[in-house]
Amino acid sequence: MLRVASTLPSLRPLLRGLPPLNHKPLLRSRLPPLPFRALSSSAPLAAAAAPASGAAAAGEAVAVEEHLTRCAAAGRAPLRVAVLVSGGVDSSVALRLLHAAGHSCTAFYLKIWFQEDFRNFWSECPWDEDLKYAQAVCDKIDVPLEVVHLSDEYWNHVVSHIINEYRCGRTPNPDVLCNTRIKFGAFLEAIGNMGFDYIASGHYAHVTHPSSENAEEPSVLQLSKDKVKDQTYFLSHLSQSQLRRLLFPLGCMTKDEVRKLAAQLDLPNQGRKDSQGICFLGKRYVVEKDVQNNVVFVSRNYYSLDKRRRTFRVGSLNWFNNSGPADNERLKCKVRHSPEFHDCTVSKEQTEENGDVLVVHLSEDDQGLAAGQFAAFYRENACLGSGIILDSWDEMSFLVCSRALEIARLEDKSSLGKPVRIMNLEHIVKSKQEAIKVT
Question: Is 279 a catalytic residue?
Fold first, then answer.
């Protein structure tokens, strides 16, 4: 039977209204230091908040190389850590590393999709199964699990924004928005007065925090050990105040090492596939938009000479330190979640419409630049921050076949296929055809 600890009553009032984030320093725990503990693949270890009471339960302890816990702040134990768990392998291993490092952990599962109040057309979001796995992982080490309902906040601050951006012909990034506004926004604000030292998750990234002697120095977001799985792109728009409160235990591991450790620990979800973010179009590429007729044209073909660009502008700039890059500095950048970087040179501009703007000159062509997406910038292994791509080249886009253009102009598209709708929100989201074939 699924056992879920009741949601903390103090969370709900804090989540309503979502005033502007005003992050305050977290209280430092005064727990006595605990020795580093081996990870056990069997019965739970003693909870980090309580003194150790004898040896670990029967079962073979799993030896873990010290470097695997370096990103779990093992040398600073015990800390009070709020750990975001999803029921997947990554967040589960992150929780086990933090617990083994001697920290006092509380796990939180965020229900952020329309799981109760709205009809869910995205049937591949099995939250009930996710929650069962999350509970099973927590039970093995006696870590409490709390469920936090953030569906309203997710709709108001992520989904609504995405819909508005699509209406304007731009292509937003749901994962970046979810991290900045929900996981490390609304949730972080909600637990701000509960005495947690850090919030942790299973992201593949690494944050280095300043020492107590240099407490005024900024925290630094660095690439993870696994350059393929690295998720710093999705974290690049966080504020410095958000970054200072985060731990990413998997930043010192590769995905293969995480999977191997999950098997050694005999985690109940060790064989689960990786979770996916929001996907509206599947494995297709947006090649044209008709905002007036509410149509998106997609194709399975990606490459086109007409889409190749080397220069673009970026606004809504966010830097982890105040200054950002120097004018005409040579950096590396990512214009999408990928292990690939572009060499680039950046220059600064001041505009009336968009304020501070960065003009980016790539060393080679990129045909996938899309207005509304994020561009993240790096100096060696450190992520400096990111901004939103402003430029759009719709006037130089793919040629769309006449049949597709004819379909786009139809007033009634209901016969073309079942539209994607959200119940009771038809006044906000008009019916759309699922896809239009292009040449």
Answer: yes
